[in-house]
Amino acid sequence: MSIQKCTVFLIVPFAISGCLSSTESDNIDNNALWASIKIEDRNAGPTAKVTAELNVGGFSGTNVELSDGEKLEVTVNGETSELKHDTDFLDIDYQTHVQVTREVTLFTIDFYRNGEPDILGSNVELPLAFDIVEPEEEQRIFSDTPLSVQWNSALSDSEMKVNVSVSCGTSTGGTVALAKDFMTADDGNYNVNLNTAFLNEIQDLDREQSCDVEVELLRRSEGSLADGYGEGGEIVALRARKVDEITLVINN
């Protein structure tokens, strides 16, 4: 049976309505399933979030809700946990949180089915943890000097995604926020020219005011999705660390 759930979200001064289109998993053969599985450590432990979404029709297709007797499980460090139903804004998925360490950690996700073969052995390794060494929270930086981003536990065979967000005032009393991401070698160091990347793109920039800066680093790995998902999908794991409340002083 296909189900459509509609919700109205009130966000002053607007109301946003959305419908969740879903179908029960016992209606779906394995060869019609698409899966997205994500492991995320965003808060420096002690747990990582495991999220699995099943669809028919790919990334933007119809959500699949598990029928009675079917379940998704994750196994890590010898411990097995069942993923529980969760309904987010315009989305249905299954989630749990598991204990993790700072080491590289193997996650295995299994889908146990009724009337169809179980889909077992989707694997991904959560990468080695790291910390942002520079910049620090509440640090003052200056526009005439490149922003130095440094982290520990560098890896020679990996890449790091550097996300930088800058929010500045304008001479007309408004605020402009820009965000960019940069891919770099995971060697522990990256410099960002904030003038070139951000400030020169802001019209009517009030150079008498300071700007707010946020830096986030993401280390990501891709795993091996079990062959049973006929429409394919993805299984990924990431570690993310963030530093905010950085003050950028503009040198005139």
Short description:
This protein is mainly β.
Explain the overall architecture.
The chain is mainly beta and 252 residues long. The protein has two domains: 147 residues, Sandwich (Immunoglobulin-like), CATH 2.60.40.10; 98 residues, Immunoglobulin-like, CATH 2.60.40. Helices cover 2% and strands 60% of the residues. It has one helix and 19 strands. Strands 1, 2, 3, 4, 5, 8, 9, 13, 15, 16, 18 and 19 form a twelve-stranded mixed sheet that branches. It has a four-stranded antiparallel sheet with strand order 7-6-10-11, with no helix packed on it. The longest helix is centred in the C-terminal third of the chain and has 4 residues. The termini are far apart. The N terminus is likely disordered.
Q: Mind sketching the topology for me?
A:
Blueprint lengths: L1 E10 L2 E11 L8 E9 L5 E10 L5 E4 L5 E6 L2 E4 L1 E5 L2 E9 L5 E8 L6 E8 L5 E3 L5 E3 L4 E5 L7 E11 L5 E11 L3 E4 L1 H4 L13 E12 L10 E17 L3
Parallel strand pairs: 2-5, 3-19, 13-19
Antiparallel strand pairs: 1-2, 3-4, 4-5, 4-9, 6-7, 6-10, 8-9, 10-11, 12-14, 14-17, 15-16, 15-18, 18-19
CATH 4th-level superfamily of the largest domain? Immunoglobulins
Overall pLDDT? 92
Quickly name the level 1 CATH class of the largest domain: Mainly Beta
- How much strand? over 45%
The largest sheet, given as strand count, sense and whether it forms a barrel, is: 12 strands, mixed
Please tell me what the overall shape is: elongated
**Coarse structural class:** mainly beta
* Rounded Rg: 22 Å
Task: Report helical residue fraction.
Answer: under 10%
What is the number of strand segments? 19
Oligomer: single chain
Q: Helices and strands, in N-to-C order?
A: EEEEEEEEEEEEEEEEEHEE
CATH architecture of the largest domain: Sandwich
Low-confidence stretches: 1-18
Tally of helical runs: 1
Protein name: Lipoprotein
Organism: Shewanella gelidii
